[in-house]
Amino acid sequence: MSETTTTTPTSTTDIDVPRPTDGDVLERILQDHRLFEDLLRLARRNDTDRASARQALAEVLVAHARSEEEKVYPTLRKDRAISEHEEEHGEEEHAEIIEALLAFLQVEDTEGQEYDDALEDLATVVNHHSNEEEQTIINPSREDVSVEERERLGAAWLARRSELLDQGCATTEQVAALLDEAVDEGTLAPEGAREKAEAIKAEAKEKAKEVEEAAKLD
After folding, report:
1. Per-residue pLDDT reduced to its tens digit, 108-155
2. Are 61 and 36 in contact (CB under 8 A)?
3. Which of 161, 137, 128 is nearest to 61 (CA)?
4. 144 phi, psi to nearest 5 deg
5. What is the pLDDT of residues 116-127, one digit of tens each?
6. What is the value of pTM for the model shown?
7. Exposure letters 30-43 (e unless 16+ CB within 10 A, then b)
8. I need a labelling partner for 87 at 20 to 30 A (CA). Which of 65, 111, 138, 172 fits?
9. 53 Cβ partners below 8 Å, 6+ apart?
């Protein structure tokens, strides 16, 4: 994802997203992962301002991912804590989050089933990425990157993260532009190809279910 940002934010949320300025980058990333979980729960509740929770979640997801791609992943790869494949896979999962986030932001009725379904889809990809990143990127970096380097990287990552949050980085238009960019750069396959792949997966899943049900009758 490029460093180009919109300087006049149009997204709004009443939820205050924490903006620490220093610390071990690995621990700060883990804190954001827990923040994702908190905001997902808040967006799921029926006694909160769901629109505000949704926008706060969108802002921190985008700021977190873009800052990682710009500041964290390249440094960890240079330090040989992660491989080129792991960096590219992390970026691909970020793009999948952006795709699910866009669908979530485009839902107009925050009290309807469409909202719940889009939130569930987003939670699935976010939780998957957090779990995988903690195992394949965070854990190796604890062993391969010095505390001093992690502190330096933490300050750089947090500064960029705060800059993006202050500017506003997750309007529907901004997220759509990030998705287009991911497709143009080849990080994510074009929509038509993804839809075809999903149809193939669904068909295979249905056939597998038929086989299982038939086996129960034997």
Report:
1. 999 999 999 999 999 999 999 999 999 999 999 999 999 999 999 999
2. yes
3. 161
4. -100, -10
5. 999 999 999 999
6. 0.86
7. eebbebbeebbebb
8. 172
9. 13, 15, 39, 42, 43, 45
Long-range pairs of 47-54 with CB within 8 A, sequence gap ≥ 24: 49/14, 50/110, 50/111, 50/115, 51/110, 52/12, 52/13, 52/14, 52/15, 53/13, 53/15, 54/104, 54/105, 54/110
Domain residue spans of the chain: 25-187, 189-218
How far apart are the C-alpha atoms of 212 and 137, rounded to whole Å? Answer: 37
Q: Which two tokens stand for residue 140?
A: 């190796």
Size of the chain in residues: 218
Tell me how far apart the alpha carbons of residues 186 and 189 are, in angstroms, rounded to a whole number. 6
